Amino acid sequence: MIESMKNPGYWKDKRVCIIGLARSGLACAGLLSELGACVSVTDDQRNHTTVTNAEHLKSQKNIKIELGQHSPGFIKGHDLIIVSPGVPDSAGAIIWAKQFGIPLISEIELAGSLCPATVIAVTGTNGKTTVTTLIGKILEARGEKVFVCGNIGTPFSQEVPKMRDGDFVSLEVSSFQLEKIVTFKPKISAILNFSRNHLDRYKDMSEYLEAKKRIFMNQDHSDYLVLNSEDPHLRKLGQDTPAKVVYFSAKDGLNPNQAAVLTVGSLLGVERDLSLKIFREFKGVEHRLELVAEIDGVKFINDSKATTVDSTIWALENITQPVILIAGGREKGNDYQLIAGLMQKKVKELILIGEAKERIKAALGGVLPAQEAVNLEEAVNKAYLKADAGCCVLFSPMCKSFDMFSDYEHRGRSFKQAVYALTKSRV
Predict the structure, then answer these.
(1) Which residue, 63, 130, 180, 287, has fewest beta-carbon neighbours within 10 Å?
(2) For residue range 315-350, what is the model confidence (pLDDT) as tens digits?
């Protein structure tokens, strides 16, 4: 409810323009409308998602919508712009907003300014979803009211009206979401790891790291920063903050994700034995090393969340069977040579899809057999034909999904549908 939020009256009659009408844009628009703001939403795409979301918003008052383009006239005259994470600074709408002198913020900045709950924010190149989920589970097991949201799938701004003082938020945040925070201040922030990623958006690794570091830029001596002591990029970041810095490392049979969760849990007073019990019971998250089916002794694993080479390296290192790997999608500046040695040891054959297939094949085709597929269904069928009993067909793309799918979840569901179709054909 509005009355439980912090300073909700600030937004009444504010003229706010939201750039982007996917999940976070839809949630922002609904929240601001409820708070009495005059809301405009613009998206340069006119597709099923944006049209459906626009129809949903038409039932609410004080919302203007522009689809299929951005125009300077639509941007001009607002008090504030909220930028969806997928919109880069090179977009015309952002350039016009800056020319008009309109302040720019992100969706998590809006939600954070209203949030009455204690926020634990998690970022890193890999493992964010698993760690965010597990933090939520250990707090729930202790009897707390906790909201698991952010980049994990459910927007922060969609959940914030339900929150109360004394609740907790386990929030997955990406570098894109952090680019335009102003006052966002989590009680606990965690950076899990840092490796090459998003070089289609950032000019170099240094700029990418600066975006990640924004997670703790507003923290003070009353807050905590949790860092991976085994990551050379992160060890020295504790010098850059007045927050209390706590390091974690994988030991005592724990993997890095579990070690990070255990450290956060200790700061929140969660008993170690309770956290370890949750780890034993945890079945994993959808689209991250998710076992879909086993057909004629061949396991099919959905790892659609893997959009980086490092994510696929992690997947291969955690699979013991010989692998037929399905990969590819939209390029994001990955160095595929980093995985070549592990591919030789673990992968029998590579099936490639999407815009990046030629680049991946050029980098890895000399390391192991590689063939192309027109779509994901064809890739699944080709992989099955190459797999012997005891093998694993792993879908771990190493790329973004946007060449063929709306997001990694859509991509993962499509993989599962292709596997289910194959299962039915074998009956």
Answers:
(1) 63
(2) 998 899 999 999 999 988 888 999 999 999 999 999
Residue 252 CA to residue 236 CA, distance in Å, equals 24
Contact 298, 158 (CB under 8 A): no
- Does the pLDDT value for residue 33 go beyond 90? yes
Is residue 27 classed as helix, strand or coil in its secondary structure? helix
**How far lies 105's CA from each of 175, 201, 264, in Å?**
14, 18, 28
Segment 57-73, tens digit of pLDDT: 987 777 999 999 999 99
CB 158 within 8 A of CB 27: yes
CATH number for region 290-425:
3.90.190.20
What are the residue boundaries of the structural domains of the chain, listed by start? 14-102, 109-281, 290-425
Strands 118-123 and 80-83: unpaired
Output the pTM of the full model.
0.84
Tokens, residue 379: 């890739």
Residue type at 254 in one-letter notation? L
The CA–CA distances, whole Å, from 99 to 18, 32, 75, 94, 413 equal 17, 24, 10, 9, 41
Residue spans of beta strands (DSSP E) within 242-311: 244-248, 290-295, 298-302
- Write down the residue that tokens 């912090």 correspond to: 6
- Please answer whether residues 399 and 327 qualify as being in contact, where contact means their C-beta atoms are separated by less than 8 angstroms: yes
* Residue range 14-102 in CATH 3.30.1330.200: no
Instruction: Give the pLDDT of residue 113.
Output: 97
Q: Which CATH architecture has domain 109-281?
A: 3-Layer(aba) Sandwich (3.40)
* CA nearest neighbour of 217 among 237, 234, 231: 237
Six-digit token string for 78: 């607002």
For residues 330 and 403, is the Cβ–Cβ distance under 8 A?
A: yes
Residue 79 burial (CB count, 10 A): 14
What radius of gyration, in Å, describes the C-alpha atoms of the chain?
Answer: 22
Percent of the chain whose predicted confidence (pLDDT) is above 70: 99
Q: Count CA atoms within 13 Å of residue 109 on its CB side.
A: 22
